[in-house]
Known about the structure:
The protein is mostly helical. The protein has 5 helices and no strands. It has a single domain (about 1-60), classed as 434 Repressor (Amino-terminal Domain), CATH 1.10.260.40.
Amino acid sequence: xxxxxxxxxxxxxxxxxxxxxxxxxxxxxxxxxxxxxxxxxxxxxxxxxxxxxxxxxxxxxx
Length: 62
């Protein structure tokens, strides 16, 4: 999932900081996902899907 997030973020030339500001998801959460410490919860996936204009399935598919 994190790789798909990075792909979308980089395509739109955004930083974790900017996405965090716009979505209200703490920047540290992205680091935790990257490091495999936590998996994203449904509410955060929904926020990201809405933010990037994709379906939540985009993040859930392998």
